[in-house]
Amino acid sequence: MSSAIGIERICMEFGEPGQGVRALDDVSLDIRANEFFTLLGPSGCGKTTLLRLIAGFEQPSAGTIRLYGEAMQDLPPFRRPVNTVFQSYALFPHMSVAQNIAFGLEMRGLPRAEIDATVQRMLALVKLPDVGRRRADQLSGGQQQRIALARALANQPKVLLLDESLSALDQKLRKDMQMELKRLQHETGITFIFVTHDQEEALTMSDRIAVMDKGRVLQVGTPSEIYESPVNRTVAAFIGETNFLAADAADAGLRLGDGQVLQAPTPLRGAVTLAIRPERVHLDPAGELEGVVEDVVYVGTDTVYHLNVAGQGGFRVRRQNHDGAVAAHAPGERLRLRVPTAAIRVLAE
Ligand code: ATP
């Protein structure tokens, strides 16, 4: 796949050089054509700033952004082959839906018949073929979101930037729109760059994800690479649930604080942190690890056991309620746990 967006060593500092806020710190990314690419990270990590730089609303302090091989620094936003959908939708409330979608096309001076045909095509694409005459402010939040997408797609951008676009929607609508966005990306073949702080949303929708923290990119990978093989503790903690255990790695294995030993998946030595996903641990009387039950929480599809392991509380084991049955274990009870060696990630930090 060819490169759609090349981000090369971008730094962004707001305020006085050397004293301001460093929103982005040496960020490099290669986003491929036709990719659904997500920037994921906690609030303030620099996601929106990176989108605004790609769109051309800001100029970087250092570094280069290329779109389809062309350096962008001298191009104003409206000359870039990019469109943005904001969280607030930013529709013109008193205009009709059709006028909203037509706006950018009229600015470009396209013939009326072509504009009308495009508006109808876009309404069909977002599955709202009959709302063209309605006023934008008479639509529901979910409908407004679709119209904002239709308006952004009408100009046939090569790249669509979506900034927390689903966060104003309720949970059910949000799940529907996640699928809808994936479908639109597939059907149009446009490169989507999606910004979110919601890891589940990122895992559900993306071809690849860049995990960001404090202005830096920590890891880039497919959802399964990021989930199964986080490069460090910050990524592991941010994506899904993770148990962390301190251990001492030596020839004999991974020795926990209370002397219990787990088999090491990799030959490492010294103080390490073990990252273990709750759903990879089994309750098994023949298991190598022991824990004391602190709490048992039934959450519908699963039951989550909170245990104290090696003197450390809050170790979670998540088991699916296949048969609707919940194993009866009471607080204070000792349980044995089986942790497959492949389920242990050994983190050096
Ligand atoms: P959120 O998820 O909360 O929107 P974000 O990851 O998108 O966060 P940014 O909005 O990119 O983060 O902000 C990154 C950092 O840069 C923050 O510390 C923010 O306060 C700072 N920042 C952003 N814009 C400006 C600005 N115009 N002037 C000064 N500081 C700014």
UniProtKB/TrEMBL annotation:
Keyword flag Membrane: yes
The chain positions of domain ABC transporter read 5-239
**GO CC terms, sorted:** ATP-binding cassette (ABC) transporter complex
**Gene Ontology molecular function, alphabetical:** ABC-type polyamine transporter activity; ATP binding; ATP hydrolysis activity
Listed Pfam families: ABC_tran, TOBE_2
User: Which UniProt key words apply to this protein?
Assistant: ATP-binding, Cell membrane, Membrane, Nucleotide-binding, Translocase, Transport
Question: What reaction does this enzyme carry out catalytically?
Answer: ATP + H2O + polyamine-[polyamine-binding protein]Side 1 = ADP + phosphate + polyamineSide 2 + [polyamine-binding protein]Side 1
Q: What is its EC number?
A: 7.6.2.11
Q: Name one GO biological process term.
A: putrescine transport
Q: Which InterPro entries match?
A: AAA+_ATPase (IPR003593), ABC_SmlMolc_Importer (IPR050093), ABC_transporter-like_ATP-bd (IPR003439), ABC_transporter-like_CS (IPR017871), Mo/tungstate-bd_C_term_dom (IPR008995), P-loop_NTPase (IPR027417), PotA-like (IPR005893), Transp-assoc_OB_typ2 (IPR013611)
Answer whether the UniProt record assigns the keyword Nucleotide-binding to this protein.
yes
Q: Which family does it belong to?
A: Belongs to the ABC transporter superfamily. Spermidine/putrescine importer (TC 3.A.1.11.1) family.
Q: What does this protein do?
A: Part of the ABC transporter complex PotABCD involved in spermidine/putrescine import. Responsible for energy coupling to the transport system.
Which named protein is this? Answer: Spermidine/putrescine import ATP-binding protein PotA
Tell me which species this is from.
Answer: Pseudomonas mangiferae
